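Appendix C reproduces, verbatim, an entry submitted by the partner laboratory led by Prof. M.T., so that reviewers can inspect both the input and the predicted structure.
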Amino acid sequence: MSAQRMTREQRKGSAGSGLGPVRRFGRQIRLALALVGLAVPLSGCGTGALWDKFFAKDDTFVEEPADKLYNEGLYLMNQKHDPKAASKKFEEVDRQHPYSDWARKSLLMSSYAFYQAGDYDSCIGAATRYVTLHPGSPDAAYAQYLIAASHYDQIPDVSRDQGRTEKAISALNEVVRKYPTSEYAVSAKAKLEGARDQLAGKEMEIGRENLQKRNYIGAINRFKTVVTQYQTTRHVEEALARLTEAYMAIGIVGEAQTAAAVLGHNFPDSRWYKDAYNLVKSGGVEPSENTGSYISKAFKKLGLG
């Protein structure tokens, strides 16, 4: 402990027992600094820096075996359930043994540890580095999946900006495209549906707001996006019913009839179809599909029409 940091009691004890070597040396240094200060004023910061230099601890770096660090990381992950501490061990492997096979394994494990700790940005960074450095590795598919899962787990509520959702979709598609036969492709496809449903939900939210404000063209554009791009989501039934409502409101009866007809054909038991059917009937017409409509084409493209 340096003389600067000694407590009042310790200073009293030292005074009673005589000055030890460190204490005497400290006084000599302060005296020397005081003398120099007569010629060149020293700031408190400069004096402290010099003082710390004399009494700094010896932090000599000691390299540890890669396998030891790696196994310590595994222990912290599996036994202590401390992914943050584990990630530090895995990162240390990469720092001390950057070109070893242990470093490659540790980079993947640090990605996983970051993911478990909820540090998604660090996970994305480590996993991206793994894919870049080891694209031919059997574990590259898992690293790519961790990137996608990290984006997916950060998908916000539909009331907020969906930029993270779009990133999740892009990353999930990358898993499916690059590793179609891997076990992670199956999970990625399931997550894709969830992410797409979220984007469709955002479109529906804005469309309803426009409909309420009687901005029918704005509403139609939003519901059209759901019908043409997100036909497999749970929002498509309502989107078709809302299109029926908006088209009837502006007098484009033919498109309203088509929206109602496609809704009835694909979702005959839907409560939304009952609303759409009654709406077109109130206008003196029946649901009738125009096969040239974008609505009809969108569903025929998927084999649903």
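The chain has two domains: 66-196, 214-301. Additional entries are available on request from the coordinating office.
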